Amino acid sequence: MIYKSFLYLQGLCDPQSAAQCDPHMTNATYLTTRNNTYYFKKRIPSDLRCIFNKSHFYTSLKTTKWATALCMSSSLVSQTDLLFSNTRKKMNTMTNEDLTETIYAIMHGTKPKTINPNTNEWISVRLINHPDGTTEQVTEVHHEGQTSEEIAADHCSLEILTAQQAPTSTSTSLKEPINTLSDVVERFMASKTASGTVQDKGLEANKAHLTLLLDFFGADTSIRTIRLEQAEEFRNLLLKLPPNRSKNKKLKGKSLSEIVDMNLKPQAIATVKGTIQKCSTFFQWATKADYVDQNYFYKMPMPKDNRKESEQRDRWYKEDLHKLFSMPIWSEHKNIKHAYYYWLPLLSLYTGARLNELAQMKPDNVIHADNIQCFQITDEDEGQKLKNTSSKRLIPVHPHLIELGFDEYLKQRQGKEWLFDGLLTNNGDLPRDGFSHNASKWFNRLRKQNNLSHVDFHSFRHTVADELKQNQVPAQQASSLLGHKDQTITYARYGKDLNIRLMNKTVQVLDFTDVLKNVKPWQ
């Protein structure tokens, strides 16, 4: 077997004749690809897993050529089949414990007591379990009784096979259980769910990022085989993937490597950083739980985004705002299926508040403080959620919103549970992404239909931040209005909330009357 593989790899026979020399050559089911490199993967029969303490043999063949990989796979298939057969025979005469110790001895290079080291059986275990071992280690006791030509042939073929297989795992005790990546991910998700510290949306985000990790490495991969090299391969693939893969019908059913080969515009570096951060959080937990020894995703180097931080998010500029608020929804009160169509963009433009903060308000959350009408951004009622503790705040209502009829709308909503209808499911339940779900989908459709794809709802928040900056509003006042975490320990720990009258002056710095001149007041 090894000699035939050697002949094929040396070009002494073509693929057809190589296939004829071994019946397994026509079967490529044991080959998988990752980053265009072929891997050998074969399932260990369930009755033998307790002996080998793993579910699969899995190793890189270090080749991108299909024919070469197929021939190498053929040799490894034969070796594993022989190993399984002989192991079952010995199970009849040896206890599982003795057999496990024997396999352990072979895997770690010591002389076995019960398996003849002059047989292919011994070399099978060494080759499969130690693809990173040298030819001398594998063959040092295999040549007794062979001719010099046979020894040379086996040496050459083993050089090829072992040189083209990369180390994929560290040696671990057979007594130690093999923890697959999918198992550890499942335990991580269960831990986060039980802790109650992560919201449902955050859990879904974790699941999406870790599903990508599973797709790349394989669900049955031992988590301990993921080292720095493999982690960097994953990062490099992320940098080539396009954005919104799950929403692109053209990508449905394609593998990650196939998607990369399409050479589509890659996703933003910030998106890649987010995925790597989620993976780092997962591996940090796995490290504490003793599933791995090190978190290779922690502080992983990333390409620099050469844009200024202020340029990495688009804001709404005057021409775009004028275009948006001249649409029939605002200028003619047409196509208003729900009142939030009209009000949410206006409220965000004059508060800088997050979409979910505004969408989850109740009529009672519009209050007066020191005789100033304010939006109360809070999470006190069931269903209301905030990003962080700094998000809880009062935002004075801008006078222009009053001119556009907000007080009239507020009167219409008295006695209602929520300030806006149409944000719950048909069953009256809260959507998975919170109150913002329906509003976000509607606004995304609206802006894309009107060639405003370079901005989104969150861009209102950046617009407010930039307007405050251009008008030289102190950073502390801007942070309080926007609900940002304060950057200094002194202010965060010892400073009190800013005076509401000062906040009112801050809000009134904002002036969008010129771009809202076509907006018809609410009636």
> Overall pLDDT, averaged?
78
Sheet of most strands = 3 strands, antiparallel
Query: Total helix count?
Result: 24
C-alpha Rg, in Å? 32 Å
How many domains comprise the coordinates? Answer: 3
Overall 3D shape: elongated
Strand content: 5-15%
CATH architecture title of the largest domain: Orthogonal Bundle
Q: What do we call the CATH topology of the largest domain?
A: hpI Integrase, Chain A
Q: Report the uncertain regions.
A: 1-27, 111-115, 127-175, 489-495
Q: What is the level 1 CATH name of the largest domain?
A: Mainly Alpha
- What's the SSE pattern? HHEEHEHHHHHHHHHHHHHHEEEHHHHHHH
Placed side by side, the strands forming the largest sheet appear as: 1-2-3
In percent, how helical is the residue content?
40-55%
- The rounded distance between the terminal residues' Cα atoms is 86 Å
Helix-strand makeup class? mainly alpha
Fourth CATH level, the homologous superfamily of the largest domain: Intergrase catalytic core
The count of β-strands is: 6
Describe the structure.
The chain has 523 residues and is mostly helical. The protein folds into 3 domains: 26-129, no CATH class; 181-289, no CATH class; 318-516, hpI Integrase, Chain A, CATH 1.10.443.10. Helices cover 47% and strands 6% of the residues. The chain is built from 24 helices and 6 strands. The strands form 2 sheets. Strands 1-2-3 form a 3-stranded antiparallel sheet, covered by helices on one side. A 3-stranded antiparallel sheet has the order 4-5-6. A hairpin with a 2-residue loop joins β4 and β5. α1 packs antiparallel against α4 (66-91), α9 (181-195) runs antiparallel to α10 (200-217) and α22 crosses α24. It is elongated and about 90 Å long. It starts with a helix and ends in a 16-residue tail after the last helix. Mean pLDDT is 78; it is low at 1-27, 111-115, 127-175 and 489-495. Keywords: DNA integration, DNA recombination, DNA-binding. Belongs to the 'phage' integrase family. This is Tyr recombinase domain-containing protein. One of its GO terms (molecular function) is DNA binding. Residues 311-507 form the Tyr recombinase domain.
